[in-house]
Amino acid sequence: MSDQRTAPVPAFEPPYYAVVFTSTRTEDQSGYGETAERMEELVKGVPGYLGMDHAQTPGGLAITVGYFRDADALERWRSDTEHRSAQKRGRAEWYRSYSLHVAKVERSHGFVREEEGTLPT
Questions:
Q1: N or C: where does the chain have the smaller number of CB atoms within 10 Å of the terminal CB?
Q2: 66, 49 in Cβ contact below 8 A?
Q3: How far apart are CA 63 and CA 46, in angstroms?
Q4: How far apart are CA 80 and CA 99, in angstroms?
Q5: How far apart are CA 111 and CA 104, in angstroms?
Q6: What is the pLDDT of residues 39-57, one digit of tens each?
Q7: Is-above-0.70 flag for pTM?
């Protein structure tokens, strides 16, 4: 993923959906980076897409969490033909293993530390 954020996606007003994709990849990653960037660009165009968090361990376990306002937005992304094609290529070439979990978020909150030296508003 090309996103270099250092903070998580903010909390949203529930309910909404979280899609948790956990994976380990194969050695040959030819074309993976370009495809991941394209998928990130594409998903941002889905009405109801809220954002994405991504993390990877030094050992290669990657976790991506996508957030969607409602089931319709999630279905639009799931059924996108270009996304479906990338999924097939992922199973054939890039992923050693993966799991996908879809959850309806019923509670959500967040915290952001105020910058030091600033006065509370």
A1: C
A2: yes
A3: 21
A4: 19
A5: 21
A6: 999 999 999 999 999 999 9
A7: yes
Alpha helices (H) in 20-80, listed in sequence order: 32-43, 71-79
Q: Taking the CB of residue 15, how many other CB atoms lie within 10 A of it?
A: 13
The 10s digit of each residue's pLDDT in 59-76 is 899 999 999 999 999 999
All domains of the chain in start order, with CATH: 19-98 (3.30.70.100)
Distances (CA, A) of 57 to 54, 60, 61, 99: 11, 5, 5, 16
Residues making up the chain, counted from first to last: 121
The span from the first CA to the last CA of the chain, in angstroms, equals: 35
